[in-house]
Write a structure and sequence with these properties.
9 helices; elongated; about 290 residues; four-stranded parallel β-sheet; five-stranded parallel β-sheet; Rossmann fold; 2 domains; alpha/beta
């Protein structure tokens, strides 16, 4: 029997995750008193129809939530295996979500949302340490979150705990606000000044081949990969859940797009949960050409 306990910060997406789990044939129930976990496990163990269960447990249970560790101990003592999925998000993200939905935080009925979040983090710190999976939803799109859940619980993929985004951008429009690592590739020859390449982008083969024809481009990719292969495990070790690698050139259409594409291809060969984004081109671009 597959038994998942879904918990985490209020507003981090537990209800959404339970819906995703339900879509992949988990029996889901939310806001379960911790002392009933063993009862649920025993009930479903006797069932021949349900073998995948996901139960939501969080501080909405009030004083009953303090019984969570006792409930988990009862499961272990009775021989039931379980996994804990912990949903988290930054304080700023949580505050914005509560304001957008005009909901009050469960622990701040008569106080500020920020105070409630602070109290909740303190209550949940030991639970987070026990978690098998921690997903930070601060900058995660609903589609990306669903892919993560499916990868872990449907496809039995390796959980790496880190979502990597490779992003191209143009310095003339500003460095992306969410960038963690920024690399400037304006030292490379610029296809913009070649009439036959000017109107193409790094997504087009003529531009890609031109930029990658230079030894400097290939050396840069190799050295950048060497650094990332060192850095990424260190970020994972420290609990970082998102890494945005931003590659910039002047306009964000030629060199940065080419290098971002090449870097994405290299990283994807070794890791899952890697996405690619071009800020200055395409439907979602910051500029229109």
């Amino acid at each position: 029997m597959k038994f998942i306990i879904v918990t985490g910060m209020s507003g981090a997406g537990k209800t959404t995750v339970l819906k995703f789990l339900e879509d992949i044939n988990y029996f889901c129930a939310d806001n379960i008193p911790p002392m009933l976990l063993l009862k649920f496990a025993e009930l479903f163990e006797q069932s021949n129809e349900i073998d995948k269960i996901a139960l939501g447990v969080d501080i909405r249970g009030g004083k009953m939530f303090k019984d969570l560790f006792e409930g988990l101990k009862q499961l272990t003592d009775s021989g039931f295996e379980y996994e804990i999925l912990f949903l988290d998000a930054s304080d700023r993200t949580l505050i914005n979500r509560f304001k957008e939905t005009r909901r009050s935080h469960p622990l701040s009925k008569n106080g500020s949302i920020e105070d409630g979040i602070k109290m909740e983090r303190e209550i949940l710190k030991d639970v987070k340490k026990r978690a098998d999976y921690i997903i930070d939803t601060s900058k995660t799109l609903t589609k990306e979150l669903k892919e993560q859940i499916n990868n872990i619980f449907l496809l039995n993929g390796n959980y790496e705990g880190l979502i990597i985004t490779v992003c191209s951008f143009g310095f003339k429009y500003g460095i992306p606000a969410d960038a963690d690592l920024v690399f400037d590739v304006r030292f490379l020859p610029n296809p913009y000044y070649l009439p036959e390449l000017k109107d193409f982008t790094g997504n087009d083969k003529p531009v890609y081949d031109y930029v990658m024809s230079f030894e400097e481009s290939r050396i840069f990719i190799d050295k950048l990969m060497d650094m990332l292969e060192f850095l990424i495990p260190q970020y994972v070790k420290e609990g970082k859940t998102r890494l945005v690698i931003s590659i910039g050139c002047t306009g964000g259409r030629h060199r940065s797009v080419t290098i971002a594409n090449a870097l994405f291809e290299r990283i994807s060969l070794k890791r899952k949960n890697v996405t690619l984004k071009h800020l200055e081109i395409g439907e979602g671009g910051r500029t229109r050409r």
